[in-house]
Amino acid sequence: MMLKVAEARQGGWTLLHVSGELDLVSSPVVRQRVHDAVAAGHRDVVLDLSEVLFCDSSGVGVLVAARRLMRSCRGRLRLVLPARGAEDGSHVNRVLAALGVRRLFDVYADADSAADEEARPLSA
Q1: What's the rounded Cα separation, in Å, for the pair 88 and 94?
Q2: Tens digits of per-residue pLDDT, 77-123?
Q3: CA distance 95 to 90
Q4: CA distance 24 to 26
Q5: How many CA atoms lie within 13 A of 55 on its CB side?
Q6: Cα gap 65→81, rounded to integer Å
Q7: Which residue has the higher pLDDT, 38 or 124?
Q8: Percentage of residues in the chain with pLDDT exceeding 70?
Q9: For the chain, percent of residues with pLDDT exceeding 90
Q10: Which residues, including other chains, have CB under 8 Å from residue 118's CB and lie 6 or more apart?
Q11: With contact defined as beta carbons under 8 Å apart, do 58 and 89 qualify?
Q12: pTM score
């Protein structure tokens, strides 16, 4: 399945809605889109991963690198990983938890709450 990234603005946030498979071949696309957002002056980014069906270690690496980039430019990164994204939960959420890196990210159930300054992240 081909990866797609759609960009939108929501409040002061740049929303990157990612769908498809986040793997060795496609993860550079997400990395570039995050870098493009930062280069355009956007320091608050939401990665909506609710429609990512598969994520391998390359995808996880891109998420960790995006977190590092946003922190280095004093920006913020939030992830959308719904608890029930698939029948037994979001694939990306399960991968991040299995690798022990889920706690590194501010995770929200949907894009609206991720872009809401008053909303609190889901617990790890």
Answers
A1: 9
A2: 999 997 654 445 578 888 998 998 999 999 999 999 999 999 999 87
A3: 9
A4: 6
A5: 24
A6: 18
A7: 38
A8: 93
A9: 78
A10: none
A11: no
A12: 0.91
CA-to-CA dists, residue 38 to 42, 78, 97, angstroms: 5, 14, 27
Closest CA to 48 of 10, 79, 8: 79
Average pLDDT over residues 33-44: 97
Cβ atoms of 60 and 95 within 8 Å: the answer is yes
94's CB contacts (< 8 A; 6+ apart) are none
- CA dist., res. 42 & res. 53, Å (int): 27
Neighbours of 1 (CB within 10 A): 11
Q: Give how far Cα 89 sits from Cα of 12, 24, 38, 45, Å.
A: 29, 23, 30, 23
Residue in this structure with the two tokens 């929303």, named with its chain if needed: 15
Amino acid identity, position 66? A
